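How a chain folds remains the central question behind the approach discussed here. This step matters because it turns folding into a mapping between discrete strings. The sequence in question and its structure tokens are set out directly beneath this paragraph.
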Amino acid sequence: MNRDEMIKRVADGNRQWDVVIIGGGATGLGVAVDAAARGYDTLLLEQHDFAKGTSSRSTKLIHGGVRYLKQGNVALVLEALHERGRLRRNAPHLVKNLPFVVPVYDWWEGPFYGVGLRLYDMLAGKLGLGPSNNLSREETLERIPTIEPDGLKGGVEYYDAQFDDARLAVSLARTAVDLGATVTNYARVISLTKSDSALTGVLVRDEETGSDYEVRARVVVNATGPFSDIIRSMDDRDAAPIMRHSQGVHIVLGAEFLRGRTAVMVPSTDDGRVLFAIPWHDRTLIGTTDTPVPRSALEPRPLDQEVTFLLEHAARYLTQDPTPGDILSMFAGLRPLVAPGGDAGGDTAAVSREHVVHVSPSGLVTIAGGKWTTYRKMAEDTIDAAAAVGGLPERRAATADLKLRGYTEDVDESEIDIYGSDRSSVEMVSQEKPDYGQPLVDGLPYRRGEVAFAVRSEMARTVEDVLARRTRALLLDARASIGAADVTAQIMADEFALSGTARETWIADQVASFNSVASRYIYPEG
């Protein structure tokens, strides 16, 4: 992917796109893949970087949603389980089976959760990842050696899937480009254009140069997640809000808190959510919370009470009680919740994760709600609606069996495995210079050549792009990532062919900007 080439296409005022998509998170990227796979001339515009928001700050699970069974939403679970199986099949380099154990401390919990998880298996059908089983106390301790043993009676084992969210977003962006789409980051839509009250396109600003371009489109899709109401208000200043604002917080601890490759799921916490303790990139990920917040923010802050909540609940179930000093990183993401019946208040934990496609009188197509697991089905429903609005040739979706960029079944447990079939290209770049094969920084599993590859092939434009999303350095260890900022900026400046004063200024600005963001991932902040 080359951003200069993409911007040239955006600047072509004589071009009318079939589909213009606003938003480069999971939903927007999925919509771009679906539209391009159907042969529509497709443009995606993202105001910051791909997956900058919630799409890089999930619980790292592709799952059916066990808790939705308790709510009786069987249809949502069924859809998610089938999409889980498809994604596991289409991107095996990024989506992998993960065993979970539900610890049992009361006699009734084993049969109760056992029955529910067998229903989970049945709904998955042929796309299931493995059968659930009741475990003895000894078997539970064998799988989760750090689980709290006092009062433990056994456990229930089941399977879901784990993934790297930001890396899947990059894969989707590259898949869309492979299919003929144009995608670009740092391109902000500043207004919508109309003719006789009908939507005709957008006005977009290149955030790197400040240049504005009018882009014509047969149909415009609003796929901005928690920010959907902002675009809807551009279309109609009197449009009633449809989004609910809630944030989920995660903390990252060392691998010693959850030894092995099995995750823990606690079905009921004090806020009514499930709690996960998950092995991820040789770390332990604990989450999540569900806290109503008054507004959407591009960089939401974890609240002290949320972090305390996670520490206290982790201490209940793990033999080693984590302290604030054990937190390597913390992060918050906003959920794209659709308000039921227009109700903007109340408890967000009970709000459904189902998606909604809305078409405004002007023809703006908004896709809201949903989650990573169901991104493909959301995109299919969105383009079905968008094709009708834009009068596009009727074509069936072609993504159910579409292999995503990097697809390979030859996977192992190395960090470079996330590149899939592009591993050889990364290795070639890492051999270009003697220092490119060196670690980016001690304590993190990345090499300097990966920075150069991210710039050349994955449209990384800033130090944050590289350390937060092309690699996961910021989430794995925020302090270590700060230590990697300067060398990352140096490599990027080389790739951008910067020199002299301009080079030094760019490096200084990038390091300062990244350090400002990274400080929010450190607890206590400092």
